[in-house]
Design a protein that fits this description.
By secondary structure, this protein is mainly beta. It contains two helices and 18 strands. Strands 3, 5, 6, 8, 13, 14, 15, 16 and 18 form a nine-stranded antiparallel β-sheet that branches. Strands 4-7-17-9-10-11-12 form a seven-stranded antiparallel β-sheet, with no helix packed on it.
Length: 341
């Protein structure tokens, strides 16, 4: 029944609006409209919005085959942009922007810095660390218009590494630290984005939300990640028409072992409404701008219930690939130009 569904629908995008390149962007607490609903961006979200028990414990599948060394038997797909934060460590704009690889930011709270990745499990020398301390702190690095949108029948692949070190049960609400693309329809905030929460029983759910549709129960898709370890996530957005797309997902551990794919992400429902991303193959609205923006960092955890010592989520080796084909994946770092000094 509809009343029994996992209450993922409360994950409205709240927080900051985009600012110009540089450090001067300010947080915007104006209401944000998403999917026909409005939320005051200054109000915390319901910290209990996720029902941890509704997530299938079997979603964290450790029995799937290992990763292939190359994403395509015919050769690597076109890498159009990447950032592995190799330029510098620290919290300067040069470090956060990885030189000039990122060309803007969202909000300006000082909660991002680049740290040495030694001992964290990332394949790179450095990684971007986002701190979660108190409500209404927001800072995300942003890259826009550095590549073209894929043609109809083609795809964009976004690859990123992530490690969730939030303490067990930490009251962080439902932050959304990664955004892809401008919305393809009015009322949505992005083409798609990821939410996550604090671990429960050593695992933290990550939820993919599709902007502007589709309808219940196919709009939110979840997967359980082990906390305190690095995962590689690959997001493939396939352009079906000029105005529609669908999405496929893969998750790997730090050794390249495939933990799950679209058949492992589910909509958190029960009974007849329960299905996986692969079964649903949801279609959502896009335009060219839906493929030309990436934002990573800390987006105003409005659900944060109290100030506390620093709590960290760390990102590494973000890459974007654009191809006229729809069947390619990124594969692990380093790929193409990522291997160059």
């Amino acid at each position: 029944m509809r009343g029994q569904r996992l209450t993922l629908g409360v994950l409205l995008l709240f927080g900051c609006s985009g600012s110009a390149a540089g450090d001067g962007g300010a947080s915007d607490t104006s209401p944000v409209v998403d999917g026909g609903e409005m939320r005051d961006a200054g109000n915390p979200s319901d910290a209990g919005a996720f029902d941890a028990g509704a997530f299938d414990a079997g979603a964290f599948d450790t029995g799937v085959a290992s990763d292939a060394a190359t994403p395509d038997d015919a050769g690597a797909p076109p890498l159009v942009w990447f950032s592995d934060w190799r330029t510098a460590t620290g919290d300067s704009q040069r470090a956060r922007y990885d030189g000039t690889r990122w060309n803007g930011q969202l909000c300006s709270s000082p909660v991002l810095d680049v740290v040495p990745a030694a001992g964290l499990g990332f394949p790179t020398a450095n990684a971007l660390r986002a701190r979660y301390r108190r409500p209404s702190e927001c800072q995300m690095v942003q890259v826009t218009n550095r590549w073209s949108a894929p043609p109809v029948g083609g795809s964009l692949v976004l690859r990123f590494y992530v490690r969730n070190d939030l303490p067990e049960g930490s009251p962080v609400g439902n932050p959304h630290p990664l955004h892809l693309g401008r919305p393809g329809t009015a009322g949505a905030a992005y083409a798609l984005w990821f939410n996550f929460g604090a671990p429960t029983g050593g695992r933290a759910r990550m939820v993919l939300q599709l902007g502007g549709g589709p309808a219940y129960p196919d709009r939110f898709w979840s997967f359980a990640f082990a906390s305190g370890v690095v995962h590689r996530v690959e997001v493939r957005v396939r352009r079906l028409t000029m105005t529609t797309a669908t999405v496929d997902l893969r998750v790997f551990d730090s050794t390249g072992r495939l933990l799950g794919d679209s058949a492992s992400w589910n909509n958190g429902e029960t009974g007849a409404n329960l299905r996986t991303l692969a079964q649903s193959a949801p279609v959502f609205p896009v335009n060219d701008d839906s493929f030309t923006l990436v934002e990573v960092g800390n987006n105003d955890p409005g659900g944060l219930q109290e100030a506390a010592a620093d709590r960290f989520v760390t990102f590494g080796a973000v890459a974007v690939l654009v191809s006229p084909r729809s069947d390619l994946w990124a594969g692990p770092w380093p790929l193409g130009a990522e291997a160059l000094p």
